[in-house]
């Protein structure tokens, strides 16, 4: 409020005109700059220290008598101009204070999209390949009986093949007959049995789901993991159909340049059985650390359905008053099973299966 009071050198008309034009410009300039309305009012119309009062006091004090009336009129006009500007400001919508600028160093407001977990996505991708071949999805319980998980799949009680699948069994089952004891399913294969008991051939199913083993966990072994199993049963199904189907599926999942090859293996529920390998997708078969310099990666187990499995199915079907439908002389089939974690590890170059279960957002966000 201690601003300089402009001087009025002469009281002739042109000097007065020039002085008031300067003051009017000053008022216009301040209202145009959107200064705080209340500060503007105090600055010009304040009762004791207002600029209008100070200037009029100064100019009128030394004004000759004949100049007082025109000066007074001019001060009234200036006051009206100021009040009009204040009214206009009061009527204007309230604006937020003008921002000083945009701080580009502030983090943006990003909305994270929900995505499929990489394991779920891999499982869905596998299932989709087989849906494209006319397979349907079949599901089954994760708590299974010994019969469906082992006996019907040609793992007799006390057979050493059971040792290959360290099993988590439910407590308090000792009173039950061996085949009725409950356990956490060690593979998705019991759903093959359940489906064949319920339906006559032809059958084409894929079975995705959790399985459980009593594993000491490491980079490639988990106590809970996920499988996708497949089963095709019809007349005239041969090993060539198995090879062609899996070769097509691997090319769909890993790219058309991928090759497959089959090695003899053993599973109780298939005969003959095979391990299928794919050409290494990291080195295209040339040999690298990931394929242990062999150019090939072991991926899944498969084989032709063992006639003993068909016999178990028909035994239950007959017991349930259903017609036998799986005479090995008439129907044949193949089955395969793959670990979802293993395929996801290869697809994404992940070194440890446990990483998928760590719930570490830094890892999972890479798949968004
Ligand atoms: Zn390689």
What is the element layout, followed by pairings?
Layout: H1 13-32, H2 37-45, H3 51-61, H4 65-91, H5 118-131, E1 136-137, E2 143-145, H6 146-149, E3 182-184, H7 190-198, E4 203-212, E5 224-234, H8 239-254, E6 260-267, E7 270-279, E8 296-305, H9 307-319, E9 332-339, H10 340-348, H11 361-364
Parallel strand pairs: 1-4
Antiparallel strand pairs: 2-3, 4-5, 5-9, 6-7, 7-8, 8-9
The site of zinc ion has 8 residues, from loops.
Name the descriptors.
binds zinc ion; 11 helices; 18% strand; 368 residues; two-stranded antiparallel sheet
Structure in words:
The structure is a single chain. Helix content is 37%, strand content 18%. By secondary structure, the protein is of the alpha+beta class. The strands form two sheets. Strands 1-4-5-9-8-7-6 form a seven-stranded mixed sheet, with helices on both faces. A two-stranded antiparallel sheet has the order 2-3. Bound molecules: zinc ion (ZN).
TL;DR?
The chain is α+β, with helices and mostly antiparallel strands and 368 residues long. It is 37% helix and 18% strand. A 7-stranded mixed sheet has the order 1-4-5-9-8-7-6, sandwiched between helices. The protein has a two-stranded antiparallel sheet with strand order 2-3.
The oligomeric state is: single chain
Order of H and E elements: HHHHHEEHEHEEHEEEHEHH
Spell out which ligands are present.
Answer: zinc ion
* Unreliable stretches covering 5 or more consecutive residues: none
What's the rounded overall pLDDT mean? 90
Question: Taking strands numbered 1, 2, ... along the chain, how are they ordered across the largest sheet?
Answer: 1-4-5-9-8-7-6
